Amino acid sequence: MNALVRPSELKKQHLIDPEICIRCGTCEATCPVGAVSHDDVNYVVDADKCEYCMDCIAPCPTGSIDNWRIVKVAYSLADQLGWAELPRQEDFGEAAAAAVEAIEGEVGALLERAHSGTGGKPVAPVTASKPTVNIFTRTRPATATVQGNYRITAQNGSSDVRHIVLSFGETLFPVLEGQSIGIVPPGMRADGRPHDVRLYSVASARDGEKRNANNLSLTVKRSEGGVASNYICDLKIGEKVQVTGPFGATFLMPNDPSTNIIMICTGTGSAPFRAFTERRRRAAPGAPGKMIMFFGARAPEELPYFGPLQKVPESLLEKHLVYSRLPGRPKEYVQDRIRSRAGRLADLLGSEQTHIFICGLKGMEAGVDEALADVCRGYSLDWSRLKPQMRATGRYHVETY
Amino acid sequence: MPETTNVDYSTKIPNNVGLTDDQRVLKALEQWHPGYIDWWMTMGPEGFQTSDVYLRTAVSIDPKGWAKFDYVKMPEYRWGILLAPRQEDRQVNFGVHKGEKAWQEVPGEYRAMLRRLIVIQGDTEPASVEQQRHLGKTAPSLYDMRNLFQVNVEEGRHLWAMVYLLQKYFGKDGREEAEGLLQRRSGDADKPRMLGAFNEATPDWLSFFMFTFFTDRDGKMQLESLAQSGFDPLSRTCRFMLTEEAHHMFVGETGVGRTIERTCQAMKEAGIEDPYDIAAVRKLGVIDLPTIQKKANLHFSLSLDLFGSEVSTNAANYYNSGLKGRFQETRIEDDHELTKASYPVSKLVDGQVKMIDEPALTAINMRLRDDYVADCAKGVDRWNKVIEKAGVNFRLKLPHVAFHRHIGEFQNAKATPEGQILSDAEWSKKKDQWIPSTSDGDFIASLMTPCWERGKFAPWISAPKVGIDNKAGDFEYVKIHQA
Q: Domain for residue B6, yes or no?
């Protein structure tokens, strides 16, 4: 065990199993960036060139192409050319799991974009559980059965947000709060290619929407003309859904009950925070750590889970439900509420137990960031120094889309 | 629908060549279709036409779309016309037309030559399906059965690919040739397939593996050199076929490898150190290594014959005209005209094998064959690694190119696997040491009992290291419903 290695030092390397490869050359012909080459004995992948586009995976007749190692220093071409078999995965302990959000390239790219607002390489909370990623892939998806599909915004509201419950039956599909799953809508795009995968945050705790029922829930908003969201929002109970994942290895709930968790979200960005809250309620109801939620919507009827949220006690979750379109009231956004609770937040930001999680539309990032900077300014804290420090210690997380 | 990377399923014939806009060719192919299905039902895999087979089908020719796996009944497999994407500004890369824009239509002066090339290639595709049609019954596992059927349906698709070119570009002659491809039969005395190796029997699974390793590899080399063609539709057709052909190489190399692995394992378990103690090894119910060597000798030599004469004016003409290039032509560093170059050719001179320099243009077949032999040798090295790893003292090797030949320089020579020339009498006395005898065949046949239980393998062959499409070991690759 290599205890000194940090996840940020590790990367994922694409390799070809020389014992199984038959040197047909299909991968080399397929690779769009010229990362694959060969000598008389082996086919090898240049770690500096490979962009994980996965184009080479399906055409390989042997499966030898689908091999990955978590490495600190990439194996060179000379290393690979000399192999008769693949080296064993070096043991980096928990760091290895946290180094990779997803093995599939397209999902990895989606998560990278979603986490880009973190402002640097995201790091998992120190006390988060070890996540499992990428058990089910586009070519080998899991089949889930729809157990429930409920509208969780008011019928008269303009936004149709659904709470979807999926059961995995006998299939093991382990998730942690904060992880996502992938859904590929059935059918083809207009150009005849399969649809792109969509990621949805899990809205339930790790032990299931219902405890130990091997199910999970999602929060999905119907968007006009959206292929995936309409497919999911129209699902009927008993229908089967192809699911990939789980994905995500950094935006995870800290396990330590003494951590303070500040959750800032809009719309369906509330999904992971529903999971966080439920987890703490089940696992550590009297936890010393605080949970505070800043949740923005246009109006109560458009705020997902408005009804159920009213029943969550303030002792478990300090709720700031913020509305931008209440008749007769000035517009209020989450950043306004953050500013008006500056004292409370500054108090928490001074503690090394505090974690910030931001989830929602990309557009909220800048406003929230400025608000947090303002809060710090008023209380002799320097956000420009605190933020990178929190990020590096796994305490600052952004997942926006 | 214009030419795209995507496959149009709106016609009976899935395609990415815009068939709906080409009513003449669409109609010609639709007329050919029933004859093809008829051929498939009578000459395709016997006894399994109603079984559900876990096959890959191309839904698009881009890398993410062309390997979709699902259960399919073979007669319902979507045989279609799939061409690799067109490369803008592609040129004729060799011969006298080097530097011209690649041809999208058949140049009049090369019509006959080109048609012949396409017909010869096309004839091999249905031939191998015919040769392998009885093998399903003795499949050593559902995994192997699936692999066999995948090879079969893809050979069928390769026939479609060639027939499309004939129908699209060769008018009435093309239509007649397309019919002829369905009329000839492998091994038939009256109307045999065009090339020798495709009229030989494939009596058992080791033969099948050897065939896919050696003979399909000839197919790969031929497709590689046709993929260089200045006639762009042929080039694009062959490029896409090559991605499928890779699976056939895989079936052959790993099939023989797994046979060897099981033999070595059984020998070790039984404490047999001498690989030449054939009787003792055979008692274990596995195929002894010397017999595997004989099988390799046979299939290698038959496949070498497919390259034609070492020195050939036909080959020179194909090259010079820009119709058929060398293996990886564009990666070779020379003038790609070869008018002044020479190439060493192995010849029989005064009863001895010697290397003689010949004009490189006429030695094109020899060059392709050399590339083929080098490619085969790498596979044999892999097999030897399996033997070495097991700690058995034996090495497989490729026989000399003069051994057991029926076409070209050595057709009248009787050479040992080492290349030593023998008299006819000596050869007759010793040939059973080098190529499988009737009793060898009988022994192998005695092992060919079916093993169709999920996740189980016949005792003479090892399980593969990974499943197809990464499926678990006990995956039901074929759901058998016997007709």
A: no
Task: Give the CATH number for residue B396.
Answer: 1.10.620.20
pLDDT digits (tens, 9 = 90+) for B246-287: 899 999 999 999 999 999 999 999 999 999 999 999 999 999
DSSP-assigned beta bridge partners for residue A216? A166
CATH number of the structural domain A142-247 = 2.40.30.10
Q: What are phi and psi of B138, to 5 degrees?
A: -115, 25
Please give, rounded to a whole number of angstroms, the shortest distance from the CA of B243 to a CA of chain A: 6
Q: Is B63–A192 a contact, with Cβ atoms under 8 angstroms apart?
A: no
User: For A22, which of B63, B253, B385 is closest by C-beta distance?
Assistant: B253
Give the right CATH number for A119-128+250-400 from 3.10.129.10, 3.40.50.80, 3.40.50.300, 2.60.120.1440. 3.40.50.80
Q: How close, in Å, is residue A193 to chain B by CA atoms?
A: 7
Range of the domain at B326: 19-479
Residues of A in contact with B328 (CB under 8 A): none
Tell me the C-alpha distance between B90 and B101, whole Å: 6
What ipTM, to 2 d.p.? 0.79
How many folded domains does chain B comprise? 1
Which residues of chain B are under the pLDDT cut of 70? 1-7, 9-10, 59-66, 482-483
Altogether, the residues listed in chain A come to a count of: 401
- A33 to chain B, any CB pair closer than 8 A? The answer is no
Q: Is A84 in Cβ contact with B250 (below 8 Å)? A: no
Find, among A67, A70, A2, A4, the residue nearest to A36 by Cα.
Answer: A67
Residue A252, pLDDT score: 96
Topology (CATH) of A7-99 = Alpha-Beta Plaits (3.30.70)
Q: What is the rounded radius of gyration, in angstroms, for the C-alpha atoms of chain A?
A: 22
